[in-house]
Specification:
Helices cover about 40% and strands about 15% of the residues. The protein contains eleven helices and nine strands. It is globular, with a radius of gyration of 19 Å.
Length: about 280
């Protein structure tokens, strides 16, 4: 699709994507909406904060039953993973997880696409994630690397608040380290994510910064990775926090290619799911 977008410019002709947003978004909304447009389809943005679902007046079960009679495919960016599962269980059309508090699979599909573009293959590679690891991106990276046969290390503080959830850890081969340099040694990919996600209160910023600064991706960390290592961040990024400016703006950074690939990976997912339904 990325190599020849014109060949896919009509695959969504006459089809509609409904986008549920409970959590704020920039890249997710624009990438899905633009991607649907590029394939000849139509996307509807629906803000749950002003809807009957958002104020508890309508169930996800009823919403799912009705909406799947109107549209061809649904994507949902929600806080609660259980709400996504309820939406899926009552839908007659494909539902895409565009992020929950538990996982973020579309991001990791884009990440894996980017890594394959830059490295030629995923086989035998080591990815190191550093920072707060009790989040959807870390969880999906762990699952994605495991499925693709990649080695993954996680470097995070030795505290449950910052550690991947056991339900994910038990399913994967990722190893957890509390020393950033140990985790990053000989890595082919270094990955960071914001220390202040949307759900985190501002008054926690000072404590989180103090706890996570030892896991910042900086020149010293890059130096223990493989010389040809690439740096990734799913964005938004704060220079001087989870990574330094010299890293994210340096020659080993692929964050903007990574961001672009959100659209191409999601386009492929939508096309694949609707082909399966045909």
């Amino acid at each position: 699709m990325k190599a020849d977008p014109k060949a896919y410019s009509k695959v969504m002709d006459g089809r509609t994507l409904l986008m549920f947003f409970a959590k704020p978004s920039l890249r997710t909304r624009v990438s899905f909406e633009t991607g649907m447009s590029k394939m000849g389809g139509h996307a509807i943005y629906y803000n749950l904060s002003t809807s009957p679902i958002g104020v508890g007046k309508e169930s996800w079960a009823d919403t799912s039953r009705v909406m799947s009679r109107y549209v061809d495919i649904i994507m949902a960016r929600l806080y609660c993973h259980k709400e996504l599962e309820e939406l899926i269980s009552f839908s007659d059309v494909p539902v895409i997880n565009a992020l929950t508090d538990y996982t973020h699979p579309c991001q990791i599909l884009a990440d894996l696409l980017t890594i394959r573009e830059k490295k030629g293959s995923l086989e035998g590679l080591k990815l190191c994630y550093l920072g707060d690891s009790n989040n959807n991106v870390t969880h999906s990276l762990m699952l994605g690397c495991h499925l693709m046969g990649m080695e993954m290390t996680v470097g995070c503080p030795d505290h449950v608040d910052y550690s991947p959830q056991p339900g994910i850890t038990d399913q994967t081969s990722a190893t957890i380290h509390h020393d950033a340099f140990e985790a990053a040694a000989n890595a082919d990919i270094l990955y960071a994510d914001t220390w202040m996600s949307y759900h985190i209160e501002k008054d926690e910023a000072t404590k989180r910064t103090n706890d996570l600064t030892p896991y910042q991706v900086n020149a010293a960390i890059m130096a223990v990775a493989n010389p040809e290592a690439i740096f990734m961040n799913c964005l938004p990024a704060q220079r001087g926090m989870e990574q330094t400016a010299e890293v994210i703006d340096g020659p080993q950074s692929v964050v903007f290619d990574q961001a672009e690939n959100r659209m191409w990976a999601q386009n492929a997912v939508m096309d694949f799911l609707l082909e399966q339904q045909a």
